[in-house]
Amino acid sequence: MAANFGLVNGAAPIFFANFDGLIPHKVAVPSAAQGIRLGIPVAMGDSLGYLPFLGEVQILHGLKRENRIEFTPPPLQRGAVVGVVGEN
Q1: Which residues are 70's β-sheet partners?
Q2: CB-count exposure of residue 80 (10 Å: 0-12, 13-18, 19+)
Q3: What is the pTM of this model?
């Protein structure tokens, strides 16, 4: 699993790429990454947009834990982009 973030039009989305289980010339489909947890400060917002590779945007709602909102996205197949979409 690799994760990077960048600044795009004033937002900082996270780009995920999953390489788990790939074997050159043998296995071309990665194993799904599960149990991913993301946390953001409460002040940033309370929902994320989750766009899986070749999929549709899903809105994720997190749980407040002290001064953070924690999210558990669905299993990650190949890759995804995640960004804050909802503000408090």
Answers
A1: 39, 63
A2: buried
A3: 0.81
